[in-house]
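Priority: medium. Attachment 1 of 2:
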């Protein structure tokens, strides 16, 4: 018994040393320590779960932070995979797509991307209540997966990568501003023709 306990403890230590964490446990170390968080649905379940995940990882969330995570759009779709038992029951596939944007200094977009999760569940025509509960649980699990994947995406950003993204965004914004100014000057220097005089009889 003691040997088995020691073996389990040893495996746990070994796995944690390799960076392995059980799903939903531990914290995610982020290079971004301060962030603003917004969503089209400010009180939706996804953004609420995202806020909780960030705060549990030690990230300070406030308006005016150096970086902003904007959950720009979340779309859910359902399609039927198969019918079972004379169309009384069916197998459905849920798909959830979350579009997001990371905004840096000067309100410039650093990254615009999306995450997608899918899940299959059974709808039993003879047990509507149970099927509805299963669908609701599937949707909740999908939101948890989206948040977990978003945290993993954020975890991948190092300070150097964020600086590089900011420099690229600054250069792009400057090029656009220069092009706009050049077009404005070209228009201002273009002689305007006077309206054509129509001879009167």
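Attachment 2 of 2:
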């Amino acid at each position: 018994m003691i040997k088995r306990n020691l073996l389990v403890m040893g495996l746990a230590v070994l796995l944690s040393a390799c960076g392995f964490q059980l799903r939903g446990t531990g914290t995610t170390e982020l290079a971004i320590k301060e962030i603003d968080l917004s969503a089209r649905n400010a009180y939706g379940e996804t953004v609420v779960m995202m806020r909780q995940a960030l705060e549990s990882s030690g990230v300070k969330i406030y308006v005016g932070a150096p970086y902003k995570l904007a959950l720009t759009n979340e779309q859910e779709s359902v399609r039927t995979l198969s019918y079972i038992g004379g169309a009384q029951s069916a197998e459905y596939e849920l798909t959830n797509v979350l579009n997001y944007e990371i905004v840096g200094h000067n309100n410039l977009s650093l990254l615009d991307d999306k995450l997608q999760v899918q899940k299959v569940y059974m709808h039993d025509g003879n047990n509507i209540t149970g099927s509805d509960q299963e669908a609701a649980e599937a949707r909740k699990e999908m939101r948890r997966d989206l948040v977990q994947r978003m945290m993993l995406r954020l975890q991948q950003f190092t300070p150097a990568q964020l600086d590089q993204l900011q420099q690229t965004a600054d250069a792009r914004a400057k090029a656009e501003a220069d092009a706009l100014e050049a077009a404005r000057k070209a228009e201002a220097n273009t002689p305007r023709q006077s309206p054509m005089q129509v001879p009167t009889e």
